[in-house]
Fold this protein.
Amino acid sequence: MSEKLLPEQFDFNGPFPRLKRRLRLGVVGGGRISRTQAMAARLSDYWEVTAGVFSSDSNKSKEQAASWFVQPERTYDNFESFAEREAQRSDGIDAVMVTTPNHLHFDASQTFIKAGIAVLCDKPLTNEIAQALTLVKRSNELEVPFAVGYVMSCYPMVRQARDLISTNAIGDINQVHVEFMQDWMVPEGALDAAHVQWRIDPKKSGKSSCTADIGTHAAHLASFVTGMPITRLRADMHVCGAPQALEDTVFMTTEFAHSVPGTLIATRLASGNRGGLRLRVYGSEGGLEWNMEQAEQLKLCRYGSPDQIITRGHGHGVTTSVERLVRTGRGFSEGIIEAWANLYTEFALKVAAHKDGIEVPDNWLMCPDVAEGATGVQFVEAAVQSHEKGGEWVSVEAVDSQGS
């Protein structure tokens, strides 16, 4: 009898179930975001890191493995041998995180898909649309679970905003505004850091830097909360700081489904903003506002009534689906690590359900999937095209689960 991971019986409407064992997670990467995600995966209590390629330099990979507490026999020189050998092991990894510079996402992800190993890839999914569509089609054809690291959608108050909008709490949406304002590129010499160099190199980062990095987070957040895709946009890209080949700032006018207008701004040169991701959605009867720097709170405004501040925490009126993502009571702060842990929790349950052959209800697990990742690539490409055309309107093609 094959191993079963999920309990024989559990309530899809209740708390997320525990698994019968922790899942085994592989790592392709080794930098700061890899360690952040690994920390969060462990926090979820669904994963343990057991194997990896931690550097493109085999000697550095072996040195890094020791600090990850990964055994030498499960430390690999490249992701090809990693995928092949782990797929042959009876205790091989259940999934892999791909947290490399952008230009390696496609080859690494495709390699693990072919090996039948589930993938969680950082965003942007790829630098090219054709590659993104290939990953959607391959993962679908081979029935390999695939998630993408749009972690901002995994904050409890973001999920609460989505639930409120889906129940018409603010009426018909009439405008959407989102911005991601950071300031880490302000200091002189910021571009010299090793972890920044690839982000401003077109050969590794692709056609865009700021838009593909944080602009795509903002776009996904707006669509995730409202349930409406961005259908077209007009974009102006700028270098506001030290000279570089790719933009550090982008201003956009957006249009969502049903011709709902909006704006999107992303920059790394906004002094005083560290995690300045802010979403405002307004409708015929009120509005919602969420700011990542005050991620515990969601502001609900109904015209003509006192404003409400909804606070993350158990027993405070959040919806059942949000309760599943809350770890501590009100007054005990949670943040980005917990949001990553929520993503890895839902991904673990997605992988477990797939291994157990269980079909799960729609909206039980909302971790961003590969099609959302490909839509993000379409968004970046549309922004680049619009900028190159002097700010003309350019359509954004949403991608479905079939890659079309």
